Amino acid sequence: MMQWEKLLASGRFDASKKHLPLKDSSRTEFERDYDRIIFSAPFRNLQDKTQVFPLPEHDFVHTRLTHSLEVSSVGRSLGKAAGEFLLKKYPSLQSLEIQSSDIGAIVAASALTHDIGNPPFGHSGEEAISDFFKHHPYGIVWQPHVRIQEWDDLCNFEGNAQGFRMLVSPNNGLQLSYATLAAFTKYPRPSQVFQRDKSRRSQKKFGFFTDQLKDFEHLADVLGLAKINSDCWMRHPLAFLVEAADDICYSIIDLEDGCTLGLVRFEESIALMGDILGDKFQPGKLEKYPTEAQKLAIMRAMTIGKLIEECVAAFEQKEEEMLKGEFDKALTDIIPSAPALSKISNLSIEKIYRSKPVLEKEAAGFQVLEGLLEVFSRALNHKFYQTELYSGKDKSILRLLPADFPLEGWGAQVNPYPLLRSLVDLISGMTDKYALSLYRKVKGISLPGA
C-alpha cells in the first residue's frame, strides 16, 4: 500500500538520478514548479497549438494554452479541497509542514503541463506521426535499425509520453518536484507491455518512451509508487485529480465553444448543463443576463463548480482504494453527473469533433506533418544509412535543422533511435503555424519573404 508521506516526498527530479536538495525560498517547491512551467518555452508554444477548432478567427475559441490554464485552475480547486481532507485524515502530514495549498499547487502545476507533449494539429497530429513510421516508405526504412520496443514507440506516438520526455529533459531545465511529475503521469507504463489490463484506466495509453524507462523507475522508487506487474505501476493518487480537471474542462468548455460557433443549439447546451446542475438550475435567473454568451458563461461556471464538488467527494470515497491500487477508473465516470457528461460527450463527437472545420484541420495536419517528416527523414537516412543517395537537396534540407540537432556519430552500424527521437521532438514541438510555414517552404509552395 502506498503512503502519502512518501508520495509527497520533497526533492526535485534530476536526470542524473541525484536527489536535489531544496533551497530556502519564499515560495514552496510546488509553487516554484508552477512558475517554472509558466515561463518555459514548451508551455508558451501552446498558445499557437490547436485545442479542437482550427486556430481562431474568433478570439473566444480555446487554444491549448487557454485550455491548459483553465484545467490548472480547476485542478487547483480539486487539489486544495482534497488536501483539506487528507490533512484531517492523516495528521502526520502536518508534521511534514504540508498544507492543503501544497496539494492544490501540485495538481495545478501537473494540470498546467497535461498537454505539453501534444504535437501540432491536436490528436490528428499524433496519428500523423504514428502513421508516418507505420506506412510511409521513409518511415518504414528505419525499422531494421532499431529494437522492437523502440519501433513500438515510433509507431505509436503518444502525447503523454512526449510530455514526460519534455518535463525530464535536461534541455528544458525544469527539474520539477517528484510529486508534480508523478501526478502528471496518468499512464505509468511503457508503450510495449507483456500484459495490459484493459479494465484499468491507467493502462489505456502509455506514459513514457523506452528511453525514459530508467527515469520513471527512479521517480517511482523515490515516491514509493507500487508496481502492478512487471511492466506497469500504480498511479499517483493525485493523477486522478489531474485527469478529472481535464475531463471537466474539455467536456463543458468544448460544448461552450461549439455553441458559440453555432455547431450546437443554445437551448440544447443550456439543457445539457442544466442536467448536471439539477435543483441548482433556475432558468428564470438566466433572463437577467442580456446575451447568450453571458448566459453560457454563468452556466459553465456553475456546472464546473458542481462537477468539482462531485469529483472531490469521489476522491475522498476512493482514496484508500487508490493507495492500494484497487481503484483505477476516471473519477468523472463514477460521479452522479456521469450520465449527463456522457450525453455531452456523445453530442460533442457528433456535432463538434466531426464538424467540417475540425475535420479540415485534421486533414491538413496529416498532410503537413507527414510532409515535414518525409523530407527530414529522407535526408537523414541518405546522409547516414543510404549514403549513395545523399544529394544536394538533402544537404539543403539538413541545414534547416536547429544548431543543437545531433548530426554527428550516426552510421549503418549505429542504432538511430535517439536520432529519430530528436526528429520527432523537433516536429512535435512545433506550433501549428510554424509547421505549416516550414512545410510550404520545404515543399516549394512558398518562398521565404514571399
From TrEMBL:
Record domain HD: where: 64-251
Keyword check for Isomerase: no
Keyword vocabulary terms for this entry: Hydrolase
Q: Which InterPro entries match?
A: dGTP_triP_hydro_central_sf, dGTP_triphosphohydrolase_C, dGTPase, dGTPase-like, HD/PDEase_dom, HD_domain
Do you know which NCBIfam families this protein is assigned to? dGTP_triPase
Q: Which PANTHER family match?
A: DEOXYGUANOSINETRIPHOSPHATE TRIPHOSPHOHYDROLASE, DEOXYNUCLEOSIDE TRIPHOSPHATE TRIPHOSPHOHYDROLASE
Name recorded for this polypeptide: dGTP triphosphohydrolase
Q: What is the lineage of its organism?
A: Bacteria, Pseudomonadati, Bacteroidota, Cytophagia, Cytophagales
